[in-house]
Each structure stands twice: as C-alpha cells, then as structure tokens.
Specification:
467 residues, alpha+beta, OB fold (Dihydrolipoamide Acetyltransferase, E2P), BirA Bifunctional Protein, domain 2, 2 domains, five-stranded mixed β-barrel, 13 helices, 16 strands, 24% strand, RNA-binding
Amino acid sequence: MNPTTPTRVRDLLATQQPVTQLVTAQGWVRTKRDAKHLCFFEVNDGSCLSNIQVVFENPDEPIAAELARVQTGASVRVTGTLEPSPAKGQTVEIHGTAVEVIGEAPADSYPLQKKRHSFEYLREIAHLRPRTNTFGAVARVRNRLSFAIHRFFQERDFFYVHTPIITASDAEGAGELFRVTTLPADNPPVAEDGSVDFRRDFFGKPAFLTVSGQLNAEIYACALERVYTFGPTFRAENSNTTRHLAEFWMIEPEVAFCDIDGNMDLAEDFLKFVLRDLLSGCAEDMAFFDTRIQSGLIETLQKVVETPFRRITYTEAVDALTGSGRTFEFPVSWGSDLQSEHEKFLTEEIYGGPVIVTGYPKEIKAFYMKLNDDGKTVRGMDVLVPRLGEIIGGSEREADLATLERRIDESGLHREDYWWYLDLRRYGSVPHSGFGLGFERLIQYATGMQNIRDVIPFPRAVKSAEF
RNA sequence: UCCCCUGUAGCUCAGCUGGUAGAGCGGGUGGCUGUUAACCACCAAGUCGUUGGUUCGAGUCCAGCCGGGGGAGCCA
C-alpha cells in the first residue's frame, strides 16, 4: 500500500497479516478517547461498517495541536504504520505519524454526538445521517440489492427497459397521480366550458408522473420476451404509514410466453437470489442489523432462502382464516380483499414465512389480470411476507382481446385510452406475466428497519420533502 | 382521510392529585501510558412547541394551531 495514496478502511481492516508499513487513511472521526500521553480515535470512510482505530503515543507539539482539533465528525487524513493491535476490539490499527484535520466539526454545534440517536431525530438531519452506523449500513445494503437485482435479470437474459417517468395516461387507476404541467398555477388558461385548458399545456393534454411502468413494459416484453424496469415511481396518495412513500423505486419484470405459475417461480427465485446475495455480500452490515435492529433477522432470511414458498389460492386463504377460530377486526368473507391483519395472520401465524396468494375475485383486482375459466377469479398473485404484508403484486395479463375489452368496460374505463395496449392483443398476442416489487419494502424486509423513510436516502412523503 | 400517543437542556427522557425545573448521555475543564458504550472529579446549559383561556399562581388543567410518532385505509 502506497502511503501517499489513501487506502480505504475496508481494505485496511481486511489486511490479514499486517506488516509494519506506512499507510494513509481518510474519513470522518466517529469517536475519540484521550489519555495523558495517548490519543485514540476511530475513522470511518463508509467503505464498511467498522472504523479503523488510530493511536498516537506521546505526540510532539505540532501533532498534539492538530490532535486537539480531531473531534467527532471532523474529516481527517492520517498516516502511520499499520500494525497488529495489542488490545481487544480490532485486529489492526494505525500507529499515527502524521494527522491532518481537513474539516473541523465544532463539538458544540455538530448534531451527531458519539451516542445513539433516535431515527426520528436523524430523519430531521438527513444530510448527516449517512454518517451513522445504521444509515451507512442501509446505504450499502441498498446498493448491494440494486446490483443483485440487475445481476439476477441480466443472468437470465432479461433486458433492462427504461419506461417513461412522465405519462399522459391517467387511466390506470393505480392511485392518485402527481400532475406535471407548465401552466401557471395562479392563472391557468381556461377552456370554453370553464375547465383548465390542457390543450395549451406542454404536452397538449394532461400529464402525470408515472405510477407504474407495467403497461409500457408489456410493450417491450411483447417484442424482446423478457424485460424489466427499475426506476422511480410516484403516488400522490395521502397515506401516512411506515411502508408508503410518495416517491419510491419499483422493479417490474415482464415476461412473454409465461403464465401465472412461471410468474410465481420467477418471483420466488428473484427474492431468494437477492437475499442470498445480500447475506453473503453484506455479511458485516447484516450482522449489525441482526444484533441492533431485529434479533433473529439472519436466521429468518436464511430460512426464507432455503424453504419453498407456500402457494395458496385466495379461496384457500379465506378458508384458512375463517377456520382459524380467530376473530378479526374486519371479518373474512369470500369476495372482500384481505386486510393487513389477515395478511399478517397468514404469514406470521399460519405459515410462518412468505406466502403467495393467487386467484383473487376479479372485482377486487385490476382490469388487466387474466380471467380464469370460472369467470369469477383472476390470475393475480401477491407475495406476502411477515411484518410487511404485500411485498410483490403481479399477475398473468389478459391476452384475449375481447375479454380485455369487456374487463375495461366493466371497470368503468374507456377503451380508446388503451388503444395501444389493446393493439398488443390484436397483433401477435401471447400469454405474458409480470409483477411489481417495491424496492424500499424489500430493503425493509431484508434489514428489519421499521420505517420505510429510513431505507431511502431522501424520503418523499406527505408534507415531507426536505433535503 | 380516520383513530390513538406525543412535543421539557444538544440528544433520550423524569417531573404524582397545579406552588415558576431534574437525571442520564453529549459538551467544556482538569486527571489518567492502551483506550474502545473508556473511567474519575468539577462546570456550563432550558422564555417547558405555539397562541389564547381557567386560576392568587400552569411544565402540570382546557381549547385552537403547528410539529413528531404509531395504527387503519389505499397500495409497492
């Protein structure tokens, strides 16, 4: 290691048999402990959870003066010899010969102290929270999962498709939309009937931020066979929960020549692949979540990776719930949607792990889901997990033109809004399936983090868009 | 949008049935030749979210507003 080129902390700590050599590290000071002739401080550079400990022994005057400026939060560059540590807590440490404070962090005003802070407080200082153990770990896990997702699909010959962020089709019914406009909010042009004249807006018609890339992904699936999207998604719902955001990231694979069973296989393989990759690739961070955030997390995920997911129909789910003897706040009956308490009971009490539910009544699911032969249920599927409930929602898509047209009518939608979507069934239609996975919910599940606002760097939610 | 909880030093909180504030941690100073949630001693620090009301007197009771958290619905 070249002393003039800083080495990342992760690599310093990974040094198995440290020879006495000169190294340079740089990062932010996490903690400092002083004695009369000794000074210990720990530096973290985000490359891993652990810090590198630095020791200065009997520093002479210019160094002692600089060490006085080394405080929690300061950025520093330190050079010294990398040596085995005589004390417990670390295998190697830097015996400092030079230290430079690059940027001070005055202790009387720096918001991060060397103690535990509540997540609520850290949310208010989102510009500094990645410098904490938890949020550093979340950031690394998020990165690892992102990469694993791409690797999973790329290794299976899926093509990454970029679906639009701005959409003019407001008609999908997947929730409230954010409007995109260049019209002046205080004095928009008005049409003859008194309504806002969107013909004079940027796109010549109303436009919104996307709530799903699915319909666009279907277009490319019906040409490239296997595609996926991975991008931001927006919902203007006034929902204030620990698992909803106004801006979140969604993964949406779409596969031609694939039925609902293939879809379930894909979803299960997908979750197992990325979780397995995470457990091996972020072992240190995952151990942290296991001990500090959710006890037993690793064991739970290990079991998920090794055990086949339970697959049941909606009808079987209803029977299991009604036959459980448990009384629910919302009564269970065939035809009504499963409530949170029902999903939790299924995953946590009855099956003790992920469950895939299929065959929902058509009335409670979207128009594009393929109608079963019974005429009553559709080939939708939800992957439910303990604690969070629905983590994946998907379906085999209706591939029959006449049936799809009828379902659009029944749903109170307009065929003309879906002319291009219907064309996919008009020309070379194929059975195809796909699903949507909320990325932040996956991170919640994988880390045990309770609040979705703590697994995205800059959360966007109702009345909340700071940073 | 609905329901519940909450807002007191930098942070986390205590403050009972109303009598103008306290702890731990953090910070400062001093001590300690190996610390690692460091330790020991001392010190500083709060117009008790905000507006109004009840009262001789309000952190404590009441109302509105603002902020934070949890649950439900919607969903990913």
